[in-house]
Amino acid sequence: MDHLEHSPSREFFSGRAEKQGRVFQQQSGVQINADSLILANLAEAASSSPMALPFTAVRVDEVTATELGVHHAAADAAGDLPPYVERQIDKELRSRISRIPRTGEPILIVGDSTAGKTRAAFEALRECFSNHLVFAPYDGQDLVSSLPSLVESKETCVLWLDNLERYIGPDGLTPQVLGLLRRARIPIISTMRAEQYRQLVPSVTQSASTTSDERINLGRRILEQIHVMVLTRLWTPEEIERARRVDDVRVQGAVAFSTHYGVAEYLAAGPRLYQEWVLAWGPGINPRGAALVAAAVDCVRAGITHAVTRELLLEMHETYLARVGGAVLRPESIEEAFAWATSLRFGVTSLLMPASENPGRFKVFDYLADEFMRSNASQPIPHDSWRTILEFAKRENSTYLVGLAAENNGETEIAEVAWRESASRGSGKALLHLGLLYLNTDRETEAVDAWERAARAGESSAYASLGIWHRARGETDKAVELFREGAERDDIFAVRGLAESLQTADEAEQWWIKLVEVEGDADDWFNLAVYYFLTERKELARKNYLEAAQKGSVAAMNNYGAMIADEDLAEAERWFRLAHQKGSWEAATNLAMDLIERGAVLEAESLLREAVDSGYFRASSILGSLYYKQGKSDEAKVAWIQGVENEDEWSIYNLGLFFENDGFIEKATGLYRRIADFNKDAAESLGAILASEGRSDEAMQLLERVKEEISPQGRCALGSAFMHGHEHEIAKYWFSSSMDDGHAHAGCWLGEIALVDGLYEDAERYYRTSFNGGHQHAADRLSHLLVSLGRGKEAAHWLRLAKGLPPVPANRNLPARKRRNKKRRK
Predict the structure, then answer these.
(1) Cα distance between the two ends of the chain
(2) How far is the C-alpha of 447 from the C-alpha of 169, rounded, in Å?
(3) Mean pLDDT estimate for the chain
(4) Which of 23, 337, 638, 769 could form a disulfide with 289 if both were Cys (CB 3.0 to 4.6 A apart)?
(5) 188-193/157-161 β-pairing
(6) CB of 429 closer than 8 Å to CB of 407
């Protein structure tokens, strides 16, 4: 084992996809997929809901901004909204709207509450679709029930989805419904608050792990299909300058505060309302009113997103009032508190907004809840409030959402009670969550029972949960059976579980392909590529890696680059650099390896050092090898030790080689043993050491596990080690295996063993085979053998070959002797 550094192959696999999804309409019982959607059945099912509304599209030029959700702003004498100021997204927004007839691409504007996104969308609607219809459904069920009217409309009808998250759900907007609308080229203009968007789409520093919240999973999959347009809260200098030129005192007043607030935000009075609420807690001001608002904010935080009753706020508010002093603050009367909280500010809105469709109920202004959750002032919801909200939710049949909020806030007991209540009313989704809660609290029997009940209730995702549980227990056949049950019901969780469980089996291909067809996101393409790579269909793997990379999969960028590096290094480096820019240290390491190959050592060293410093210790082995090749043994040792301390496999192996070459056999042996169970090279090196020390039984026990993976050269080296350990028969076994696989050098060793055993014919045969395989020194050994056998003429022939001289021709023509013709004497 005379080599020292080892560079592992490029890091192909970065993990399986994590995004999950659903394709099943829960309550309606209608199954939707991307290929077929029976509109008549869907409409009938949706219309059976008490929330279904008639299709009520109106002319765009007849609808007002406030009807479509634009926040009231400080009105002028005529009661009009302030003039619209052009925003930076307007040109792109109108450009994308113009492409809808060709692409069906939905429009989604994301921004903070009162950033002006709804107003920007409304102005674009009025400019681009002034002669057409617009339809703003009440909720997701209203949207689904109106699909036939939308699709069959002879006139262009724009689908207006302000606060898009309100429409997402298993009985509302799903990826499949969105796909139908896209193919039908129905214009969709939608908005979403940034806070809601952040809950659905994780940042680059967060993992996109699958959650049990079906609505979140649906939302993620939907948002992955939409190119988002972001409208920032603070205005750009260009927007501010345009606002300055507007002849309107309200806009001018907003510009004066534009350093801290967006103009639209200020006009909507969100920050002023928040500030007023924060300052209202003092004595003699409005502490009771502030407590009522705090109660309403916590209702939203606890999952009650609809308007709540006056009685609920009254019951809850005493807790918040007591927290800041209670009676000591001389709080105002209840009537005064409600009057303060519901009174209009600046002609815009109020802290508590009365529900026009439901008198006696109130909903807190969205900005307050969002800002409170964003701010450092956010505090845990009091336990008494959780109990009160839970009782209210039971009466309102909304315990499922309270359970989700409680779980997210660490209130496990509240979540369990909420989901038990929801499950008692027939909610399969609640049973799913209960099962996971039971599992996380070491109640596996109850978890399995909940999932089985959910499956009987028609919750197809329950099969996936059961399959995952059985797979974790090693019951693969049972898991596959359950996954197949769910997959046949088009549950995407089950489809993924089945594909993963089948691993490289032929059947797995159809399920990975189905994931691509149903979801089509980057991770699904990546998983399909991994499947093809593992089944050695490299061209298909490369094609799918490229597809995934183009869709944004960082892991696929790295893997695609690794696959093409040998044939197109420049293109491979381009993908490695792009993946590295997006945070992939695997790609940075692969890039460094390619840079080393073409001599760009300084950049490679910088990349590797940066990778190690960032915690990617698989780069330690390569960094150490780079230092060693440069003659920097001390630096190499430090790099490998850093990798060893962080359990990097190849750093452990390389440091073992380093110690072995320096004669520290005991240290090398200890390092090899740490990884010998899963690292073939370490097992081989350790086996060689044990063999040379005469510990043949231990060496063979170790080497038998990996003998099929050992190269012919490695087997020859092992034979040599056993020779040093005086185990000639075992050595002969390894030499023979090596020579049988084409490593001719092993023939010399076999010849030596045959000589020791007196098997001269065998020795001669081995030497000839070795020489014919390219090992010239075998000719010298054969020459000596032939001399000892008295075959000098042949020995001379092989000696010439050993010295590199041409052989003497076998039938050399010698010149004829001249004979003299002597005269016979007479």
Answers:
(1) 86
(2) 24
(3) 83
(4) 337
(5) parallel
(6) no
Query: CB 430: neighbour CB atoms within 10 A?
Result: 26
pLDDT at 687: 85
The Cα 115–Cα 251 span in angstroms is 14
- Tokens of residue 782, six digits: 């054969």
The confidence score (pLDDT) of residue 36 equals 36
d(CA 351, CA 365): 6
Q: Are 747 and 721 in contact (CB under 8 A)?
A: no
d(CA 90, CA 92): 6
Question: 158: which 2 tokens?
Answer: 């724009």
Q: What count of residues does the chain have?
A: 826
**Dihedral angle of Cα 189, 226, 176, 457, to the nearest 10 degrees:** -100
CA distance 523 to 512: 11
Angstrom distance (rounded) from CA 86 to CA 44? 43
- Percent of the chain that is helix, strand, coil (3-state, to 5): 60, 5, 35
In Å, how far are 613, 658, 741 from 685, measured between CA atoms? 30, 12, 20
Please write down the HEC assignment for all residues of 196-226.
HHHHHCCCCCCCCCCCCCHHHHHHHHHHCCC
Q: How far apart are CA 680 and CA 687, in angstroms?
A: 10
Residues 6+ apart with CB under 8 A from 61: 126, 130, 131
Mean pLDDT throughout 502-522? 90
Residues 6+ apart with CB under 8 A from 101: 185
102-124: b (≥16 Cβ within 10 Å) or e: eebbbbbbbbbbbbbbbbbbbbb
> CA torsion sign, 264 to 269 to 271 to 274?
negative
Structure-token pair, residue 344: 């209009």
- Structure tokens, 131: 């002669």
Three-state DSSP class for residue 25: coil
pTM: 0.57
What pLDDT sits at residue 693? Answer: 86
Q: Judge contact between 738 and 730, C-beta under 8 A.
A: no
Q: What is the DSSP letter of 181?
A: H
pLDDT class of 529 with cuts at 50, 70, 90: very high
State residue 594 phi and psi, 5-degree precision: -70, -35
pLDDT tens readout for residues 179-198:
999 999 999 999 998 888 88
Which pLDDT score is estimated for 665?
92
The pLDDT tens digits for 394-436 are 998 889 999 999 998 999 999 999 999 999 998 999 999 999 9
Give me 136's structure tokens.
């703003």
Phi and psi at residue 640, to the nearest 5°: -65, -40
Q: Which residue, 231, 291, 288, is CA-closest to 87?
A: 231
- CA 719 to CA 691: how far, in whole Å? 9
**Mean local confidence (pLDDT), 70-78:** 58
